[in-house]
Amino acid sequence: MKNHMLLPLLAFLFVLNTGCNSLSEKTSSTDATPEPYAYALVLHGGAGSMNFQSVTEEQQVKYKHSLDSALQLGLDLLREGGSSLDAVETVIRCLEDNPLFNAGKGAVFTSEGKNELDASIMTGWDLNAGAVAGVTNIKNPITAARAVMEKSEHVMLAGHGAEVFSEQEGLDIVAPSYFYTQKRFESYQRSKEKEKHGTVGCVALDSKGNLCAGTSTGGMTNKKYGRIGDAPIIGAGTYANNKTCGVSATGHGEFFIRWAVAHDISALMEYRDYDVEAAAKEVVEKKLVEVGGSGGVICLDRFGRVAMITNTSGMFRAYGNSEGERLVAIFK
Ligand code: ASP
After folding, report:
1. How confident is the model over 38-57, as pLDDT tens digits?
2. How far is the CA of 230 from the centre of ligand 1 (A)?
3. Is 189 inside any structural domain?
4. Is 156 within a domain?
5. Is 199 annotated as catalytic?
6. Does some domain include residue 23?
7. Domain extent at residue 133
8. Alpha-carbon Rg of the chain, whole angstroms?
9. 211 vs 183, more confident
10. What's the rounded Cα separation, in Å, for the pair 37 and 323?
């Protein structure tokens, strides 16, 4: 190339280059992804119609204390570098052991006067999942769900098969009467009333950027025996995907199954670019409301940003993250 042609070419390349630089600077500033939290955790203890009469001040103190201590347990574990899977299992076990909630001890009764429990767990990095349904003697169904995920080649085990498997895996087995609480029994007797809250769930993001979600429940008071709700159904009551978010749901399970609620929230983020709050609102406040499906969800996206959305007047919930932000709430 002749020298006299070199100068204009260099000038052209310089302009092109600065043009590219400024374009890429622009791109990165407009597409700025949020700084992720090192870890975050959100949990729920059920949603339903509640007001200051139905949940007295004394009960509010008890619930808030229980939610806060479960939250602390999970946050401590994550701060020490524990996995989101361990955090979700630990938090849900704590809530299952607490008779205030409709999961594990304190579960509601079926139309037959028994307790049948459902639970599931899912890890967002490999889309692995495990669930148990309709179990009657496993002390902590969430641990059984994890065992199904990690130690069997299946995703869901139900009833007697799930119980035998859990016993073989060395899980705590209890007499069915362990789940009995006076409060739930009275509500079953009064009922044929529908108990609308108490299911528990948790979503965690750990310091490796991994999401995990889990849900555990006794179902709905006076449900037909053998009925299985959304809590153990992957994509309905529980979902986790590192690409999008983790979700745990609570509410009228039949609607959450039919509208594939937890997966729908993730799909809106994956395919329609919604942020986690917009996706949760679209599904819970629009789609479910249009068809009369009451309930709520807790979600964390891959940055640890939270959405706690319910179309009912209350949802027991708590959230915390590595920046020390913290919330414990009951009413909407
Ligand atoms: N979703 C649960 C079920 O239908 C109940 C609840 O969350 O209150 O079994």
Report:
1. 999 999 999 998 888 888 99
2. 7
3. yes
4. yes
5. yes
6. no
7. 39-331
8. 23
9. 211
10. 7
